[in-house]
Amino acid sequence: MDRQEALSALRHEYQSDYQNEIQSARNLLARGVNLLECTDGQINVDDRQSFVALGQARKRFVDALGPALKPLLESYARELEREAASLGLDGQHKGEDPLMESLHEALRHLQRADTSAPQQQAAQPVPAAAPAQTYQQG
């Protein structure tokens, strides 16, 4: 596999990853969330069998879940679309484009920018209070 084929395969993989994630976010918006899961357990929102599911706490939780997640999911989908476009994954870039030759670098740059922004702010030293100065015209 030559370099162009490898870059094309890499671009296709990134494009597919972004498309799948955007589609997942849009499906959650359209169909709603029916399962919340972590390594230690899960909450099946569609459960209608257990005693917990029949309680008022579950009803209030389910009723609040959709409106709380909707703006977050909409924002996430828009941000994913912008991020994909910034990497040249919107189908608009040609194969000869220099950005296409450095998708890995572009992605690393985005990741570094995300992780370094808060650190840069925290790393900036706070200037010590300067002694009061007076100015005299002479």
Number of helical elements: 4
Fraction in beta strands: 5-15%
Mean pLDDT: 75
Secondary-structure element pattern, one letter each: HEEHHH
Tally the beta strands. 2
Work out the helicity level. Answer: 55-70%
| Main β sheet profile | 2 strands, antiparallel
Description:
A hairpin with a 2-residue loop joins strand 1 and strand 2. This protein has a two-stranded antiparallel sheet. The protein has four helices and two strands. The C terminus is likely disordered. It has one domain. With 138 residues, it is mainly alpha-helical.
Structural features:
138 residues; mainly alpha; 6% strand
Protein topology:
Layout: H1 3-31, E1 35-38, E2 41-44, H2 51-54, H3 56-86, H4 103-123
Antiparallel strand pairs: 1-2
Helix pairs in contact: 1-3
Can I get a quick summary?
With 138 residues, the chain is mainly alpha-helical. The protein is built from four helices and two strands, in the order αββααα.
